[in-house]
Specification:
This protein has about 160 residues and is mainly alpha-helical. It contains five helices and no strands.
């Protein structure tokens, strides 16, 4: 007696509705700080897009302050997700300027952690290389932000 094997069920690509449901399901089981970061990112991104749809000459002072707050919220949210290694949770691509600011902040934390050790003669070569790499990353990110006129994201002047 032979049994017929059923034809294989295709698994990819999933329809957009299924992908959306999977994202919501995954988010239900994430740590609260990641859920908060993704939600804040999505809300701030939507508000920023809403503001940017309006000509800047029509912005009020409150609109400008709201836009700056959106930038900060987006950056803070990206920092949480970068630290957790979960940038995959964002459905929209991250603006390269925001990514540069996140890279700068992450590298600055690494450089600060290694800077005290740099003053001692006992600093390992690997740590010295790591410090130099962090400083190079900071310089590159700062140049990207300066070119975009967005140094305020890292506390720098315009």
């Amino acid at each position: 007696m032979t049994t017929a094997t059923p034809p294989p069920t295709p698994t990819a690509p999933l329809p957009p509705a299924a992908v959306s449901v999977l994202h919501r399901l995954e988010r239900a089981f994430l740590p609260l700080d990641l859920v908060r970061a993704v939600t804040r990112y999505e809300v701030a991104t939507a508000r920023k897009a809403e503001l940017e749809a309006k000509p800047t000459r029509e912005w009020s002072g409150t609109d400008f302050d709201s836009w700056v707050d959106c930038e900060r919220t987006i950056l803070d949210s990206v920092m949480v997700l970068v630290a957790a290694g979960r940038m995959d949770l964002l459905e929209t691509p991250v603006d390269p300027v925001i990514r540069a600011a996140a890279d700068f902040r992450k590298a600055a934390l690494r450089a600060a952690a290694l800077s005290n050790e740099a003053l001692s003669p006992n600093m390992a070569d690997l740590d010295a290389d790591s410090l130099a790499a962090a400083e190079d990353l900071m310089a590159g990110a700062r140049a990207t932000l300066a070119a975009a006129g967005m140094l305020h994201l890292i506390g720098g002047g315009v």
